[in-house]
Amino acid sequence: MCTGIKINYEDGCVIGRTMDYEVPLNYNVIYLPRNYNFCNDLMGNPLNTKYKALGICFDNQDILKDGVNEHGLIGITNIFTGFNLYSNQTKSEKFNISSLDYFTYALTNYKSVEELIEDLPNIHISTKDNRGENVISPDFHFMFADSTKRCIVIEPKRGELIYFENPYDVMTNSPGFKSHVRRLNQFLDLDNLEDFNSAKNLPGGYDPISRFIKAFYLTKMNIKPNSYKEALSYSYNIMAAMTMPNGFVRNKKYNHNTYTRYICSYDSKHKLLTVKSNTNPTVYQLGFEDIEEKDKRQAFFLDTDFVVEKLNR
Question: Domain range for residue 217?
């Protein structure tokens, strides 16, 4: 149950997201250098990074959930529940990879959204490797943007990956992107947002459809930022309205609470990662220029304790 938004400023954009998760979770920031072997494809071939990347992973594994690369390509992953979304066998004529590893591959091997789209027909996601053995391949969809401000959503459909141009600058979860757009047009007059009574009629639910409409409205009606710092600030303000407190949603399937574990926002021009935990209001920042050993894979951990600073006179 995650929400992602994009906010443009004059010469770049930021993508912000909430990470809402239903089971206990450890997460941290990682830096992946060039020529780093982060996994194997489904044919058993090693996959190496072409470009440097910064992002957030679970349990310090080389599986990015969101991130930015050295060329300003930004992306996020979200759960996208469906049936038979992926093939159950590899295709020798294509590049075979699990959905778990696709995002890391895309972020570390493409410079731009255009490059990513061009290669999309060559990508084949499967739930089994070339030996017929099961692999972890979760139901994911993806949102990407770059320094040109172009934004797309990539979804699995009938065993293939398809993309949609995303001028709405929002992604939540299932149903599919077209369904979200259809519901959005039914709910709002997109050419006349000023007359909408947001204080009274904006959806308050946390289902994916309500969050898509709410995030779209808040993003489009937000004042235009004058700089990347303002864009980052606005993204955190909007994401704060989308967060889920611990205990608000009880997940009966896992006997845990579904709630927001972290909020992050990435900047395309300055290639920055920023992130805050649900328990600490401090926003942490990391850029590629902050990395001292640039040829070494590195992990960074947030302080999740509640941190305050004394107010000086």
Answer: 4-300
Domain CATH code at residue 36: 3.60.60.10
Question: 310 lies in a domain?
Answer: no
104: left (phi over 0), alpha (psi -120 to 50) or beta: alpha
Total-model pTM: 0.94
Question: What are the distances in angstroms from CA 176 to CA 114, 171, 185, 207?
Answer: 22, 10, 15, 14
Contacts of 284 (CB under 8 A, 6+ apart): 29, 274, 275, 276, 302
- Domains: count for the chain: 1
> For residue 222, how many C-alpha atoms fall within 13 Å in the half-sphere facing its CB?
27
The answer as to whether 309 is a domain residue is: no
- pLDDT by position in tens, the chain (length 313): 799 999 999 999 999 999 988 777 899 999 999 999 999 999 999 999 999 999 999 999 999 999 999 999 999 999 998 767 899 999 999 999 999 999 999 999 999 999 999 999 999 999 999 999 999 999 999 999 999 999 999 999 888 899 999 999 999 999 999 999 999 999 999 999 988 888 888 898 889 999 999 999 999 999 999 999 999 999 999 999 999 888 777 777 777 888 789 999 999 999 999 999 999 999 999 999 999 999 999 999 999 999 888 888 7
- Assigned token pair, 34: 């060039």
The answer to whether residue 306 is domain-embedded is no
Q: Is residue 146 part of a domain?
A: yes
Burial category of 31 from C-beta neighbours within 10 Å (exposed 0-12, middle 13-18, buried 19 and up): buried
